[in-house]
Amino acid sequence: MPVSIIVPTIGRPSCADTISSVANSAAGLGNAEILLVSDGPDEKKHGPQIDAGPVPVRNLLSSKAGPAAARNVGLANAVSDIVLFTDDDCVVPASWCEQMMTAAQNSAAVAGNVLVPRAGNVTCFLDYQGFFQAPPLDGRSVRYLITANAAINRARVPQGLSFDESLRTGGEDVDLSYRIRSLGEHITWMEDSRPVHHVLSDDLEEITGRMRTYGRGSAALSAKGYEGRSLTQSVQRFALMRAGEFEGRRFAELDDSSAKDIFSFYQFTADACYLLGHLEEVARITKDRIIDVDYDALASGWRDIESTLPQLGSAAGLLEQQADMRRLLHAGSLAPSDHVRAAAITLSTCTVLRSPHGRDSRALADDSPPDSEEKRRILEALKPALH
Length: 387
What we know:
Shape: globular
Number of strands: 12
Strand order of the largest sheet: 3-2-1-4-8-6-9
Helix content: 40-55%
Low-confidence stretches: 323-334, 355-370
Largest sheet: 7 strands, mixed
């Protein structure tokens, strides 16, 4: 049976490694094709010309920007009903094509494991939290696909089913998944499959930038009628975080106090950026000014705090042993560490201009901007821990 593999690209240097791993996985199938789709007309985002040996690589160009449009170009040109998806910063295992293709023959859609290779604090956090794992619905299926490791059987879905190109800020894979499930189909979970590796840099932007995008995608999905966080809830939540009065993960399952502190800080920044992205997208949709964010100041402040964090080092082995607990133990109230308090103070660089009821955000949570001197004092107190 033929199989088509679609890889959208924004011209990342890692794309060559992605295509090499996909070609290696597909080489033994005898009837496979790789569709490398450049995301938009910007030549800087075009994919490389790659010779993948016996597996043909078709270089295609999407005239529109955005991953949904690029994947749709791939779908329009794919010859097979069985279509596999991965991204241009992923490396797939040798067994990937055969396993996903076999599973897709009996299902409308299939989701597989995605892990982040651990290179430091950031990637260890992302992998531990399972950021790129499809969320479970029950023991054999998931709520939605993560297109870093996904397959669709077009013979099981309506002809012409495609990604919603209006969702340019993210959420297109979630939307497609919900439409597949609305047909009475389920998305099969390949729990025992070897994972695709999502290779990321160990940089704070991998959390903050990604979560801002996810927040914008969430708002766009809410605008389409999917259940999600309301504007009122987002403003209230952000006001509480800005005031240092919030709930979050304790990471109580971890014995290592440094790991708890590190992960609490990263979880706070992830939650905050998700909310900022959500508020930004609501403002774009409603054509209203809701929030002003100085992202340069925010990033600079959080990097200053991050620089005082210890490196996990040997704790990474502990986290590996306890990874199966990560979905089971979530916190009620979080007693914030100094790193999290400092991160909350940094949010004072963001200003909510309008709440849903026309009040300043301070009226929602009494969140008078924290004193920058307090942040300086906290950072000074943290620095000796590095020596």
